[in-house]
Structure formats: structure tokens, C-alpha cells
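Repro:
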Amino acid sequence: MTKMISTPELAEIVTGLLVAPGATGELEEMDAHQAFVVEIARVVSEFCGGDIAGFRNDEGPGLVAVQWNDSLPDNGGVWAPYDLTGWDEDEVAEPMTEEAAAGRRADISKAVEATAGSINASLGTGLCDDGNDSDEPIFVNSYACPECGETWIDRWSCACDDDCPTCGARDISPQASEEVTDE
């Protein structure tokens, strides 16, 4: 039998491997994790432009070096809203403002959260799901990461701790939790 993984689920797997490899039990060695990060960046650059020049990990999240090339759109494409000072002005025909970058990143985060929320709701499961039938309660939990400041909302079968989707900080308790009913 073949296991079918949706694209949001694949995104969850890849995100986990990128930012919290210890939580997945995979890529726990630095060399393996670094190689995975660089390969994922290369896949993005192959389809969206840019050249991957390397990886740096200095106490904190790793940094992928992305160089400008002619395959990128004038505005810098998918890389544009990140590290706004990384490319020279003569490389980027339409540099992104901080406000525009924050807006684009917020739009991406909202789209990802909405998709992840609908996947969790359709599956009716969560990390603290005990396998009960669909009559169990659903909680909408709001989280704020004390490490990086990221905020997110997720649906679970209980008011359980979660891991930060941005930096991988573990066991973050919900700031608020509301039981909801799906009708």
C-alpha cells in the first residue's frame, strides 16, 4: 500500500526537518542537517531563481547564502522579503521596502497557518490526540514563542504544549485556549 502525503503535510515534514530536526528524530547530526538545508535551498533556487553559495551556522538558526543571478525576477522573487540589505541596489531593480517585506511575510504565514489549520481540522488529530473518536473536543490554542516572538494558532484535541514553527523551541504552553464545536 502507498502512503499518500498532502502538500501541506509535506511542508510540515520539511519545516520540521529544517527548524527542529531533533523533534523529528532525523538529521540530528550537524553535517546531515546542514546538507539537507542546502539541498532544500537549491531546490527552491532551481525553481525560483538565485544561486546557493553556502551555509553558515553561528549560534542560532542557520543562514543560507543566496546570490543574485539572472534567473531571478527583478524584485528578487521568493527571496525578496528576507535580509533586505543582502543584495546590492544595482542587482535588484525593484528593492522591497521593510513594510512590503513584512506584509509579504505575514501573507505567507497566514496562508500557511490557514492551510495547516484546515488539514488538522480535516484529520481531526493533533499531537496530544489520544485516538478517541471524532466526538472529542477541539481546542483552538494561541501560542507565543518566548525565544523568537513568533505567534501562531493551532487546533488540537486538548490545550497542549506545542513547538514553535519558526525556531523549533519546544514545549510552549498556550497563552489562550478555547474549546470549539464543529457543526
